[in-house]
Amino acid sequence: MRFEKGHKAETRRHIVDVASKCMRRDGISATGIAGIMGEAGLTKGAFSPHFESKDALVREALGSALGEQQLCLEQDQLKGIDLEGTIRRYLNRAHLAGAADGCPSAALLPEIARQPLSTRRDYEKALHSYVMALAALLPGGDSVKKHRRATAIFGLMVGTLQFARVVPDAAKARQIMEGGVEAALDLARAPSP
Length: 193
Description:
This protein has helices at about 5-25, 35-40, 55-80, 85-90, 95, 105-110, 115-135, 145-165, 170-190. The protein is an all-alpha fold. It is globular and about 55 Å long.
């Protein structure tokens, strides 16, 4: 059976999208190739023409999720959304409930730390790019200090989301999120050391 030109690339993109959601929802370790392929509507045998290993798929799925996150940040900046809007967009109810479509850092950091060095290096590059975009929203001219502060703000946002997701009481989870917004804004306004 012949497929239209671009079919293989579209199929690969679909597998990456499904894998990215599955991994953020269930974790990297708990997400198997058979489950990903089944959710993608494909057979397990269709995996190997696209990826040499699960590690290769993990790298690509993480890169895709981080790229989507950065694209959203850049689109918000083009719309004129300020730092507070960016923080509130990250620390909101939809993101709290939607791990599968949300930040891969908040969903997967402990597992990313246990991935092969090549995966962690790819993650680090994407993280650096995201933090640079976040730093552009901070006041001041010293790019090194802005980058350091943006890294701390992003770490605070990720940790806040992780804590809030663990708390079963919805009201307490919202309080945690609002506390994270306040702390991130305080950090953003604090004078640089």
